[in-house]
Amino acid sequence: MNRSHLSEERLNDYAEGALAPADRQAVEDHLAACADCRAEAAGLRTLLADLERLPREVHPPRDLLPQIETAARRPEVVPIDREGSRDRAGSRGRSLRDLRAPLAAAALGLVVVTAAATFLFVQSRGPEPIAERAPGVAGSPAPGDFPAGFRAVANEYDRAIGELTATLESHSADLDPLTVRLVEENLRIIDRAIRESRAALDADPGNELLRHLVVASYERKLDLLRQATQPPAPL
Amino acid sequence: MSDLVERAQRGEAGAFDRLYREHVERVYAICLRLSADPLRAEGLTQDVFVRAWRRLDSFRGESRFSTWLHRIAVNAFMEDHRSMTRRGRRIETTGPGGLEAYSIAIQSGAPDTRLDLERAIAALPRGARTMIVLHDVEGYRYEEVAALTGVALGTVKSQIHRGRRLLREALG
């Protein structure tokens, strides 16, 4: 484009109808005499019209409402449901059948950590029946040992999840590639949430909402890993 | 304010569900085009509705509910983007499935769309894609895009001009 042509900014402003009348007229005078700029302007206008015509609605691949409702309500309650123990036991049984022993062992570790986290939350909120599961958990923090105890639990989560993830990776060749890809991407998202919520909690250790967010993120990761070990994985 | 929003604010059973059904496709469309990543778009869409649920009481009807929701969507995306950038993560142009995964998602979710244009948008550098989607597809004014993204107005315009140039090159 030589110096006599309209600038890109001028052409864009013209194509968008953003020029004052006098400026618009000057551009149109130029376009009448310059085929190159005329073609540029026409191309831009076509593109803008095409972009504007794109559908504004895209149907998501699945119903997201159940997870939304669960996540939205989570901060208002203990983030581990009362039936978690039973569900996890069932999951572990399926894992043992469908997968390899190391995977199941790692899953068992996650159950322990979950119980410890539950205990921690219960202790910070007052006695609830679910706390009865906690005293047998090795390394569970003493009441009032917060947030140091919480960090210990979080570290346990990290350790157990790390083991489960490593096992999953070592057997990824046996799994459907699409499943592996979906799991990896979701893990990436969840890991971000975990890092951010933990960093925030470090800065504000007494913040109950942040404690919820940390455990909710770990729970989400736990759920995903558990699903990934139970093909077909419903993501 | 719509009757449905008021009923949702009162906690009436089923009201939020209906709000979700009415708006999820618009929200998912924004999230999908901004992220160019079907999985991330799902996560963002969930985040948007979770935020909306929690903040529903703060909605006073000063704007349309859809406008309010779409702003939450853009904010959720931008926060996610900033967080990734802060941690120095490599910013991928598209998600892990690349353009193919994106194509499948956009085509199955909007069968009438122009796939070549959608793919060209998804393949844009993130900055240009964000501006193009917000301004040229969603219709936000330049000033609104600058405010939403925290990017200087001049940069917004230059990114949009660059994005349009790249789109035209890609579309031949």
Any overview of this molecule?
The complex is a heterodimer of chains A (235) and B (172). With 235 residues, chain A is mainly alpha-helical. In chain A, 68% of the residues lie in helices and 0% in strands. Chain A is elongated. In chain B, helix 3 packs across helix 4 (65-86). The longest helix of chain B is centred in the middle third of the chain and has 22 residues, at 65-86. Chain B is globular, with a radius of gyration of 17 Å. Classes of the chains: A mainly alpha (235), B mainly alpha (172). The A-B interface holds A 8-9, 12, 43-44, 47-48, 50-62, 64-65, 67-69, 71-72, 75, 181-182, 184-186, 189, 192, 195-196, 235 and B 17, 20, 24-26, 28-29, 32, 37-43, 45-46, 49-50, 53-54, 80, 83-84, 87, 95-97, 105-106, 108-110, 112-114, 117-118, 132, 136-139, 157, 160-161, 164-165, 167-168, 171.
Topology:
The complex is a heterodimer of chains A (235) and B (172).
Chain A: H1 8-15, H2 21-33, H3 35-53, H4 65-73, H5 84-98, H6 101-125, H7 148-170, H8 177-203, H9 208-228
Helix pairs in contact in A: 1-3, 2-3, 5-6, 6-7, 6-9, 7-9, 8-9
Chain B: H1 3-9, H2 15-35, H3 38-55, H4 65-86, H5 98-109, H6 115-122, H7 126-137, H8 142-149, H9 153-171
Helix pairs in contact in B: 1-2, 2-3, 2-4, 2-7, 3-4, 5-6, 6-9, 7-9, 8-9
Shape of chain A: elongated
Helix content of chain A: 55-70%
- Report helical residue fraction of chain B: over 70%
User: Overall 3D geometry of chain B?
Assistant: globular
What amount of the residues of chain A lies in strands?
under 5%
Tell how many strands the DSSP assignment of chain B holds: 0
Number of helices of chain B: 9
How confident overall, as mean pLDDT of chain B? 91
Main sheet specs of chain B: none
Separation, N- and C-terminal Cα atoms of chain A? 50 Å
